[in-house]
TrEMBL record:
SMART domains: PBPb. Belongs to the bacterial solute-binding protein 3 family. This is Major cell-binding factor. InterPro entries: Bact_solute-bind_prot3 (IPR051455), Solute-binding_3/MltF_N (IPR001638), TAT_signal (IPR006311). Keywords: Signal, Transport. Transmembrane segments: none annotated. Residues 55-286 form the Solute-binding protein family 3/N-terminal domain. One of its GO terms (cellular component) is outer membrane-bounded periplasmic space.
Length: 288
């Protein structure tokens, strides 16, 4: 939250009055629409803070192949969203994309659906590029860029499960990610398709945990965005009724509500869509 400027009057000696002003205190609350201060630059400008710092702090995924993935061998992040972060850093810091990559002008922090919003609120991160679906509810709390990718939800099952249609989900346990919109989208799909099925849902902290639970037989299905599921599809798994396309997911880059950084991020995404860079990235990371 932003504190108002306070002045303290100090009377000394012969009644001489001196005024001391304290600077605006930097915000530390969880308010999603407050503006946070900075020790340098304008207290209202995220752009100024980033330029003074010289790096863009980015929240990304570490376990979503093709989007945000931490290679345990190289200890480096890779994927569409990682490349996108470097493009945004280049735009903010006034350098080329190649220079941003070469100089490592992005500082990456892995996030989960539960942590990504709060980390923006408390200014620990400048942007979130982590398969973050744009919803009307979320837009009340954070700014989102133009979508850089649209995906749909899928339901991954074991081939030996015997399930062939959505109705077979009745009484089954579906694993979903904590803080995601997946559960509601699956339920809405069943309603829209007039499917008489009432599955149970179990939440997990990350995608590898859901896949492990599926392999162990602790859950019957793994529901998530299709491009994400692609990275967890093994020879003994398949999508349940892949012809049923539902739950469109528009991914956007999130920034603090009302931040001057938001426009720069949105302008960058729009440019990358227009000049074909994003299309090349879909091919590069096999997201077609």
């Amino acid at each position: 939250m932003d504190m108002s400027r306070r002045q303290f009057l100090q009377v000394a000696g012969m009644g001489i009055l001196s005024v001391a002003s304290m600077g605006t205190l930097a915000g530390c609350g969880s308010s999603s629409d407050g503006k946070s201060g900075s020790a340098s630059g304008s207290s209202d400008s995220k752009l100024a803070v980033i330029k003074d710092r010289g790096k863009l702090k980015c929240g990304v995924k570490k376990d979503v192949i093709g989007y945000g993935y931490l290679d345990t061998k190289t200890k480096k992040y890779e994927g569409l969203e990682i490349d996108l972060c470097y493009q945004i850093a280049a735009a903010v810091l006034g350098v080329s994309y190649d220079e941003a990559v070469e100089k490592g002008l992005c500082e990456f922090t892995d996030v989960t659906p539960k942590t990504r919003g709060p980390l923006i609120d408390n200014d620990q991160l400048d942007i979130i590029a982590a398969t973050y679906t744009i919803t009307d509810e979320r837009k009340k709390s954070w700014d989102f860029s133009t979508p850089y990718r649209t995906d749909h939800v899928g339901i991954l099952i074991k081939k030996k499960s015997g399930m062939t249609k959505m109705a077979d989900l009745d009484g089954k346990i579906i694993g979903v990610s904590q803080g995601s919109t997946t559960k509601d989208l699956v339920l809405q799909m069943l309603k829209d398709q007039n499917v008489d099925a009432t599955p149970e849902f179990k939440e997990f902290p990350d995608y590898p945990s859901i896949k492990s639970a599926l392999d162990a037989g602790n859950i019957d299905a793994f529901a998530m965005d299709r491009s994400t599921l692609k990275g967890y599809t093994t020879d003994d798994c398949e999508l349940l009724q892949p012809d049923v396309e539902f739950g469109a997911q528009d991914y956007g880059v999130a920034t603090k509500k009302g931040s001057d950084l938001s426009k720069t991020v949105d302008d960058t995404v729009k440019k990358l869509k227009k000049d074909g860079w994003l299309d090349k990235e879909y091919t590069k990371w096999d997201l077609l």
